[in-house]
Amino acid sequence: MQTVLRKHALVKRRDMYGHLHYFTKETALETLRETGYEILDCFYTVRANDLGAAATQRLLKIPRKLFFALHENSAVRVLGG
Length: 81
Description:
There is one protein chain. This protein is an all-alpha fold and 81 residues long. The chain folds into 2 domains: 1-42, no CATH class; 44-81, no CATH class. The protein has 6 helices and no strands. Helix 5 (61-70) runs antiparallel to helix 6 (72-79). The longest helix has 10 residues, at 25-34.
């Protein structure tokens, strides 16, 4: 949600990394189902700020971790990650 609210965030990431597809958890899982996969489990991987990201990403580290502990899906949807 925060990326969508920032005017140039998606364009900047596209310029940095090339052709990207943007999925929500729900659309990613549905895409896999549509291609014939059976979803047995899903989980979120380690976020970049846990691996030593830029200072701007580190600012959200504590709020993300706290919100993620309360409700993973909402935290990812609202704060990214």
